[in-house]
Amino acid sequence: MSDRPFVRQLSVFIANEAGRVSEVTGLLGDNGINIRGFSVSDTIDYGILRLVVDRPDEALAVLKDAGFTVREDAVICIDLPDHPGGLANVLRIVAEAGVNIEYVYSLVSTFVVINVADVNRALHLLGDRPVRLVSQDDIAAIGR
Predict the structure, then answer these.
(1) Per-domain residue ranges of the chain
(2) pTM for the whole thing?
(3) What is the structure's pLDDT at 11?
(4) How far apart are CA 112 and CA 51, in angstroms?
């Protein structure tokens, strides 16, 4: 690839059905593999779960052994400065070089965004569980 550092990303192709993301993440957890970042995109029929994990070789083997179709890609990971415009400045460098950015997602945060079909129902279900729900005010307070 390159003499510069890159990160190995696994893309897992899954049916767009309830429980499929949970199945993959549970399988990794059961095998002691820690997810450092992820992204899920979908179409009507299938989804792509993109993962950055602590042990990609083992994750790849575990997922393939379980019958999942998995692709590995080299991606760039950047430690962004935590100030307004930090992301924009980095993306501008890439754009000005004429390199197309296909997607971006964050890593290593314990805050995750979940888009669901019924937000109110999901909030109600999670409200009775040992899950800390994050508010917009919590997001605004990061780094203060």
Answers:
(1) 7-141
(2) 0.75
(3) 95
(4) 13
| Domain 7-141 part of CATH 3.30.2130.10 | yes
Which residues of the chain are modeled with pLDDT < 50? 1
Structure tokens at 14: 């899954």
The Cα-based distances of 73 to 46, 62, 94, 101 in angstroms read: 19, 17, 19, 14
The owner of tokens 């990609």 is 56
Give the integer Cα–Cα distance in Å for 33 and 27.
9
Rounded distance, CA 72 to CA 45, Å? Answer: 22
Whole-number Å distance between alpha carbons of 21 and 17: 9
- pLDDT, tens digit (0-9, with 9 covering 90-100), for 21-62: 999 999 999 999 988 888 999 888 889 999 988 899 999 999
Q: By the 8 A CB rule, do 77 and 53 touch?
A: no
Give the burial string for 133-143 (b: 16+ CB within 10 Å, else e): eeeeeeeeeee
Q: For residues 36 and 28, is the Cβ–Cβ distance under 8 A?
A: no
Contact 80, 86 (CB under 8 A): yes
Residue 80's alpha-carbon distances to 13, 19, 69, 73, 96, in angstroms, are: 29, 33, 32, 21, 18
